[in-house]
Fold each of these.
Amino acid sequence: RARVLAVAAQKGGVGKTTTAVNLAVAFARYEGLRTLLLDLDGQGHVGAALASQFTDGDTTTLSDVLLGHGRDVDELVHPTRIAGLWLVPSDKGLAATEGILAGRIGKEFLLRGAIRRARERFDVVVIDCPPNLGNLTLNALTASDACLVPCDMSVLAMGGVADLLGVVETLRDRLDHDVRIAGIVPTRVDRRNARVTAAVMEGLDTAWGDLVCRTRIPVSSALARAQMDGVNVFDYDATSPGAVAYRELASEVATRLALR
Amino acid sequence: RARVLAVAAQKGGVGKTTTAVNLAVAFARYEGLRTLLLDLDGQGHVGAALASQFTDGDTTTLSDVLLGHGRDVDELVHPTRIAGLWLVPSDKGLAATEGILAGRIGKEFLLRGAIRRARERFDVVVIDCPPNLGNLTLNALTASDACLVPCDMSVLAMGGVADLLGVVETLRDRLDHDVRIAGIVPTRVDRRNARVTAAVMEGLDTAWGDLVCRTRIPVSSALARAQMDGVNVFDYDATSPGAVAYRELASEVATRLALR
Ligand SMILES: Nc1ncnc2c1ncn2[C@@H]1O[C@H](COP(=O)(O)OP(=O)(O)OP(=O)(O)O)[C@@H](O)[C@H]1O
Ligand SMILES: Nc1ncnc2c1ncn2[C@@H]1O[C@H](COP(=O)(O)OP(=O)(O)OP(=O)(O)O)[C@@H](O)[C@H]1O
Ligand SMILES: [Mg+2]
Ligand SMILES: [Mg+2]
């Protein structure tokens, strides 16, 4: 039965999608894990990031499954052209769905109930979350064994990490759900902005010490260019600093979570 | 009575807050406009960006005002150390508030009703929005005369602009509210990533031609460093490319909206 990993961060643009996509590809290609990538963000950027490597062909949507009864994301699993990687795409109705599910009993647990059959078929599920700590992110967290938190080199992103850890604490106390922090990933690390980078890295270390991943994701234009071309970074340029770092991160996370 | 300008974009991290803050400071300092900056994002990054230049001291919150009856953001106006600039800070409860107001009749119009008295006292109100097209952003749009849309050099950000313009269209048809697009601002323009920049600039021009601002905001580490120090970019380094660009943008937007 699959381990489930949520990629979440309150701050916008810190690299959640870039991390979820390239980590999932690395799990499949380099760690030999049957991987399911699930896009829980109505922006649909996971599908865009792999646009040239998968085809969305369904009338059923993730919103239908979340709001339905006895349904499972299993119905929505699409193959990709990357061996070992499957995808559940998001849909444009997800933002509205977040509002609708707010009225449901146990609104935080709808995804957990709809992921059981899919979990039987994979080794790991990676969930990309929207830039907030709302109901969709809560659903991802309660459906997950662990949470990976991308954090860029800004004091704003660090504030977002603190807020997310507060939410994880509330889930533990009030809803009795334990989601482990797989790690806080320093992202968009720019050697040209040494002063800011040093200040943020020190802040992360002081606040969360051993929760901070050893692997840092550097600024690497290949990551942005690959996303623009709808291709994962390893197929775009496996020698780029971004590709090397995400491969390393996959290995570090696979070890931390005993995925293989 | 003040012109009201929403700074909105669905995509995370494209520079909404950086734009709202520095544009508001430039309106006050260089365009001579009595300016109110309103933080509608529960992340509270406007307050963080000006942390060293204002003091938050209130038991009343923006959530209280939005959910109350007959209240006005007037009650929450704080002075800053920047002559001509006042601030209405956000509060941590805003994310929950977004859920609560979903049940209200005319949920999109709560801010419009709560901004009337404040408008009497200023020349322009600038509203910073969260990274989504949810109820808070809708409240900003219906309270606004115009919307400024930051867009960074990524195909994902462009997709977000298209979604936002779709929402503006729906507000027009269904709710009879006309919010003009003040402009689409190219942000984080990086001369080092020439290929991606050229592709996105061409895409913006093809899709939205004269809606695209003449002023482009370059990547400028002073913008990130100023935010880290809780100071606006003009006081941090007025000669930096970021400061020069935001001053220019303020002039361009003031002209487009006939603010002075
Ligand atoms: N390490 C990096 N180097 C260069 N560009 C990057 C890096 N990481 C992400 N990017 C680019 O930065 C932008 C934001 O990244 P991404 O969309 O993954 O962030 P996000 O946290 O998912 O955003 P959102 O909050 O909107 O969901 C994208 O255009 C992406 O290609
Ligand atoms: N032109 C620029 N050059 C360099 N850094 C920038 C620039 N614009 C913004 N930044 C930095 O990029 C990060 C994201 O910017 P900002 O917080 O303003 O975006 P946002 O759209 O408000 O994000 P969110 O979606 O989380 O609200 C911040 O750390 C900011 O300091
Ligand atoms: Mg994303
Ligand atoms: Mg912001």
Note: The pocket of adenosine-5'-triphosphate (ligand 1) is lined by residues A 12-18, 41, 45, 131, 187-188, 217, 219-221, 223-224, 227, 242; B 11-13, 131, 154, 156 (CB under 6 Å).
Amino acid sequence: MAQVISIANFKGGVGKTTTAINLAAGLKAKGKKTLLIDVDPQANLTQSLGIHDQIEASVYHVLHKEAFGEETKLEDVLVSASGLDLIPSSLELAGAELELASVYGREQILDQLISSLKTYDFVFIDCPPSMGMLTINALVSSDFVMIPLQAEFLPLKGVRSFLKHLELIRKLNKRIELLGFLLTRYDHRKKMNRQVREELETEFNSDKVFKTVIRTNIALANAQEKGIDIFSYDKNTNGAIDYASLTEEFLSKFNH
Amino acid sequence: MAQVISIANFKGGVGKTTTAINLAAGLKAKGKKTLLIDVDPQANLTQSLGIHDQIEASVYHVLHKEAFGEETKLEDVLVSASGLDLIPSSLELAGAELELASVYGREQILDQLISSLKTYDFVFIDCPPSMGMLTINALVSSDFVMIPLQAEFLPLKGVRSFLKHLELIRKLNKRIELLGFLLTRYDHRKKMNRQVREELETEFNSDKVFKTVIRTNIALANAQEKGIDIFSYDKNTNGAIDYASLTEEFLSKFNH
Ligand SMILES: Nc1ncnc2c1ncn2[C@@H]1O[C@H](COP(=O)(O)OP(=O)(O)OP(=O)(O)O)[C@@H](O)[C@H]1O
Ligand SMILES: Nc1ncnc2c1ncn2[C@@H]1O[C@H](COP(=O)(O)OP(=O)(O)OP(=O)(O)O)[C@@H](O)[C@H]1O
Ligand SMILES: [Mg+2]
Ligand SMILES: [Mg+2]
């Protein structure tokens, strides 16, 4: 049975999509079978893996069929993109927020679909920057949640209210646990970055804050433009070094 | 009659809130009367002006009353925060997306409320990173939209789909116009930044891209932590210099 991990934070632009791609690629290099699911209507994860045309069959179509009782499964829309297994998103997903709002069991639609996935070690769900039906569906289907954030004032504020929402989600999914906070665009020379890191470690207990931090590195954006992960782009960049070290630390949390 | 400007982009973390505060502060220094409205449930604008306690009366309460036919106006919840006039947000706003979804005329609730504001030169609306009911209400009530973005691959992709949505909004608000794209965290030494800037200027016509770019400057985050604008924090930072130049360029678009 796969371990399902949501990569979520309703604060925008903190590196959710960048982390999903590069952690999945790092795990693949370690021989683990990983699946990426893009539930962001922006479809940034799908685009960052080189898929730019309008997708005919995406996670939207599967969610919609499941919500209205038609026979369907996630594997129906599975694609291989830059060597990674992906359930792609599409712009129709923006309509799903309102469409799903009145469906019976609206928070558990994705959970029904994910429980039938047997062949993966890890499933990562890339969430949009909001706490709507799509993020709720992701959290309800997850064993863990990973929260990327920039070590700055506003993102730190957002995390506390995100965790309050997570407590409410526990009513629908008792098993969800915080896997950890991942600091992105981190510069140890900046006092604010160091202060926020210390604050997180004191407030939430240091084993909930990944020791690996991701430094600012434009190569991460360059790789996304080319539609590939950072290791395929250039193994010698800070981005590749940091995400390789994150992969090690991630696996150590699962005793692999 | 005030000029109403939405600061919007459904891509997250691009500097919407940072721009709203510092442009409003820049205009105030030039003697203009400006109002800020925070329609992001994250309430980052409200927090960045030093308001951290749970707000009793926020934009949520006014939108809710207006939607259900009770007498109300935005001035009822107006506060002065760090010298700026603000209609604050609160976490209840997260529920507004679903609550407003079934209300008659759900896209025009904010527009009804804004048209009675007479005393301001400029009203800025800080939007959340999504294209839900709150952003739609902001765009329907606006004369202009300003789109901050980082000059990178994913944010550029997001802009094209944002503009498609804007075309749909025009059905509800014929007057809305693109005031311009504002490049944030810009570094002219990075090839990708220069390329994206050129692409924008070619694709959308160069008068739609602000000549002023905002450089990466941690002082902008420091100022938010202290709950003040960048000019009050330190006039000699790159952030203050860039936002002062943006203020000049902004005013030149309105022949002031
Ligand atoms: N460590 C980093 N260094 C430099 N750039 C980065 C880094 N991480 C992410 N980026 C860039 O910053 C932007 C935002 O990152 P990303 O899209 O992964 O964030 P997100 O949290 O998924 O955003 P959203 O909230 O919109 O979904 C992208 O253009 C990405 O290429
Ligand atoms: N030019 C800049 N240089 C350095 N840091 C910046 C700059 N602009 C914004 N920031 C910081 O980046 C983070 C994101 O900025 P901000 O919150 O303004 O973006 P946003 O688009 O409003 O985000 P959201 O989509 O979550 O509403 C904040 O921590 C802010 O302090
Ligand atoms: Mg993303
Ligand atoms: Mg914001």
Note: The two ends of chain B are 15 Å apart (CA to CA).
Amino acid sequence: MGKVYTLANQKGGVGKTTTTINLGAYLAYYGQRVLLVDLDPQANATSCLGVDKLTVRGGTYEVLIGKSPAANFILHNPRLKLSLLPSSPALAGAEVELVGELAREYRLRQAIEPVADKYDYILIDCPPSLGLLTLNGLVACKDGMIIPVQCEYLPLEGLGQLTQTIDRIRSAVYPGLKIRGVLMTMYDGRTNLATDVVAEVRKHFPGKVFEALIPRSIRLAEAPSYGMPISNYAPGTPGAEAYAALAREILESDGVR
Amino acid sequence: MGKVYTLANQKGGVGKTTTTINLGAYLAYYGQRVLLVDLDPQANATSCLGVDKLTVRGGTYEVLIGKSPAANFILHNPRLKLSLLPSSPALAGAEVELVGELAREYRLRQAIEPVADKYDYILIDCPPSLGLLTLNGLVACKDGMIIPVQCEYLPLEGLGQLTQTIDRIRSAVYPGLKIRGVLMTMYDGRTNLATDVVAEVRKHFPGKVFEALIPRSIRLAEAPSYGMPISNYAPGTPGAEAYAALAREILESDGVR
Ligand SMILES: Nc1ncnc2c1ncn2[C@@H]1O[C@H](COP(=O)(O)OP(=O)(O)OP(=O)(O)O)[C@@H](O)[C@H]1O
Ligand SMILES: Nc1ncnc2c1ncn2[C@@H]1O[C@H](COP(=O)(O)OP(=O)(O)OP(=O)(O)O)[C@@H](O)[C@H]1O
Ligand SMILES: [Mg+2]
Ligand SMILES: [Mg+2]
């Protein structure tokens, strides 16, 4: 059975999508079978892989409302060796449509189960909120959540609210929710702000912060406009090396390498 | 009657809060009476002004669910000459609580009316989503919305979805919704990505993009940890100068200066 990790943080712009795409790409590069699930109505993960969200036949929305099994919509890119369950703007309506439904938080978890044994890693990208979509993502991550934290003050501030939400989810819907790790992103070692934030996060999450520090690198911001991960767009650059190191660190601690 | 502008963009981390605080601070610096409304459960605008969101007696949440008039909770900072209707984590529950209510989109607009004539400018900071809170913010902005756009590809990509949502709001709830302006943020002129994005946005929003370009500046990211706007924390730095220029540009085109 493969691992299922969810990328979540209600603070916007901290690197959830960038981590989903590039960690996924390097796990595939190291020979793993990888599925990415785009749970964000913005469909950023979908467009980062060069897929046009407006032409998508179906995806996460259809799966969540129970119209169709996930296998019908999973796209595969043989060159990147990555699979994707794409998002579409229709997903924005799912939160309201599911409000009254039974077991609405378990929809994604149930939808992934039939395809789970085809993959070694499933990574789920969440929107910047703590609504029903993110809740579905957190209930589905049987092996834990990965929390990207931008090395700045406001993202640091938001961690308190996130841990409260995690506690609430554990007591109400999914006692097994755990933190797989906290990832520091957009790190600029020249600034005191970044080094202070890293020290602070390490204090609050002892033993949970990944060794790999993702540096701020313009190449990471450029790659999405070419529809490819950093492993293809600019291998060997600091951003690419950092995500490769993160993939190795995760494989090692998962006992795969 | 003062002007009411809402800062909105569902893309996370584009500078909505940073613009609300620092544009607000410079409008006050130029003698305007300014109220900031924090409509984000993250309560970032509240903490940027040094207010502890966990000790707030009441704020936007109480006002939206109709418990109490806004005037009861507005905090005033005489040193900064800024007023704030603070947020609190309880606001996260408002979306679900209001789902079945009548005229749920108009709550904020109705709540602001009794205090509107005490201020020359009211700026509303929205969360990174297009849910009921942002909808309230957009129905309340009688003088238009300000759209911060980070000078990178994924924020550019999100503009299509934002304009579709604006069209939907115009036809369904608020025909008077208009765009006051688009603000380019975290601009780094040394990269082609930034200059390409600015050119692209100017093409899609002819005549709507503010002249003022907000540069990427570490001082802007540091200021929130000191609980003060850039006008107090690091006046004279490029980030401060850019927000001062934006305030002057808005005052001029509003016929105030
Ligand atoms: N390490 C990095 N260095 C430079 N730019 C980065 C880095 N990581 C992400 N970015 C850029 O920063 C912006 C925000 O990143 P991203 O969209 O991945 O964050 P997110 O948390 O998924 O955002 P949202 O909350 O909107 O879903 C994007 O333009 C992205 O290209
Ligand atoms: N011009 C700038 N230069 C450098 N850093 C900036 C600039 N503007 C904002 N920041 C920093 O970037 C991060 C994102 O900005 P901010 O929180 O204002 O965006 P937002 O759109 O309000 O985010 P959210 O979507 O989470 O509400 C913050 O850490 C902020 O301090
Ligand atoms: Mg994202
Ligand atoms: Mg904000």
Note: Chain A touches chain B through 37 residues (CB under 8 Å).
Amino acid sequence: MIYTFANQKGGVGKTTTAINVAAFLAAREKKVLLVDVDPQANASSSLGVARDAALYSIYHALIDQTPLDQIVMLTKRLHLDLAPASAALAGAEVELVAAENREYLLKQILAPIAPRYDYVIIDSPPSLGLLTLNALVAADAVIIPIQCEYLALEGLSQLLHTVELVQQSLNPQLRIGGMVMTMYDSRTHLALQVIEEVAKHFPALIFRSIIPRSVRIAEAPSYGEPLVSFDPKSRGAQAYEALTVELLERELQI
Amino acid sequence: MIYTFANQKGGVGKTTTAINVAAFLAAREKKVLLVDVDPQANASSSLGVARDAALYSIYHALIDQTPLDQIVMLTKRLHLDLAPASAALAGAEVELVAAENREYLLKQILAPIAPRYDYVIIDSPPSLGLLTLNALVAADAVIIPIQCEYLALEGLSQLLHTVELVQQSLNPQLRIGGMVMTMYDSRTHLALQVIEEVAKHFPALIFRSIIPRSVRIAEAPSYGEPLVSFDPKSRGAQAYEALTVELLERELQI
Ligand SMILES: Nc1ncnc2c1ncn2[C@@H]1O[C@H](COP(=O)(O)OP(=O)(O)OP(=O)(O)O)[C@@H](O)[C@H]1O
Ligand SMILES: Nc1ncnc2c1ncn2[C@@H]1O[C@H](COP(=O)(O)OP(=O)(O)OP(=O)(O)O)[C@@H](O)[C@H]1O
Ligand SMILES: [Mg+2]
Ligand SMILES: [Mg+2]
């Protein structure tokens, strides 16, 4: 199963959600590959892999056809492998424009290796450009993290429109796996209004598990650890574990 | 004076800082044009202009050479005009790749109209693609909002490298106007560490004014108002006013 975490709005918790769901799946002994297609390489560094530490990155697979086998690396966690990003990816959007099958490249490079894993989790950049398009075309389902803030609602229709376009032509199997409300701050009335708004329009998609705004979640990346090992008893860890369980339950109903 | 607010890291407060500095400059009777080149059009909606309300947007100026005069619209605030974005901009990055002078287009469309304003403030998307490049080439100076979080430090070297490349070839006059620390949460030790880190490496660039994390700041966009009118006595408004004053002081020293 290939999940892409996408939302063109910046800073809504795409990376944080991708790495923590990946780590909780690995903790349940699922074999997981995390693919970082964001030039910021935050998923890589949140797992303790410095941005340009790896010799090869997703950039080389997309641009030079380097086999993914040579790129995938082990992380500190059992059952969780990583295909790292690098800064060079920032140029890939322009370099890929003229490529043959430019939207299918990631799907093609994942094809030979995906069967070895139970899950492939793809973290995408904050845009609707070619890298995110590649991530949507390669995926079975897209998970949409939504920050509990007013501006985060604004871009939702644009994202859903893009998903529809992808479903119509590039990837008809693409499903919307769900919408995850993130950074919920119970001190603000606005946050609850945003959740109610999303629940009203997308009752079947919104996950019950709501991720609280929490200092421990923001601190974990500086230790290069996911929450399951950084602070497993924290509210953040419990929320992400509940989300992972919900995701597994939804799969049974497909 | 043309300022661009840029940082490829998502959700760090680019839009919030751009609109509030623009509004405080307008409140001091400076004539200000706010230019929104982010396809999310958050700057437009934070000032009460719905994303596709305007007939024309920056997209039409960049792609169809529609004169900026036809695009600029008045906002509720005196002395603050807006050149709105639209969702169509999301496609502009790909459409612009083959254009002649593709990095200079924004600079060229601003040239005839910029002299009518004391300030042009440009809000850019969370990427280092062609739209942000256009914003850096058009600017006299770039202001870098930095969220007080660990992941926000990660991308700083990549952004500074891009600014250097622009200074070497596309826009030798480009200065770094400063670095603004945003969403400072005094409850977390990490936030202070991030500020100390930035102050250590960039003592001459970091602004003294630090923007606190505050619910009122996040609520203002849902009312379509900048802080100067939404809640002028709030901590957020006072911090943004102090920042604006500091920016004006720095100009005197150039
Ligand atoms: N629930 C949370 N509580 C507090 N901080 C959080 C939470 N989730 C994420 N963060 C922090 O907020 C910032 C943004 O999160 P993250 O980087 O995961 O978002 P993103 O959508 O991947 O951003 P980008 O658009 O830049 O890729 C990070 O500094 C992260 O550590
Ligand atoms: N100081 C603050 N305190 C609390 N919330 C804030 C603050 N500054 C911005 N916000 C909120 O945080 C979110 C991100 O801010 P904003 O949209 O300005 O960042 P951005 O860098 O422009 O994002 P993007 O990368 O998507 O363009 C918004 O919902 C905004 O209302
Ligand atoms: Mg991210
Ligand atoms: Mg913005």
Note: The pocket of adenosine-5'-triphosphate (ligand 2) is lined by residues A 9-11, 126, 149, 151; B 10-16, 38, 40, 42, 125-126, 182-183, 211, 213-214, 217-218, 221 (CB under 6 Å).
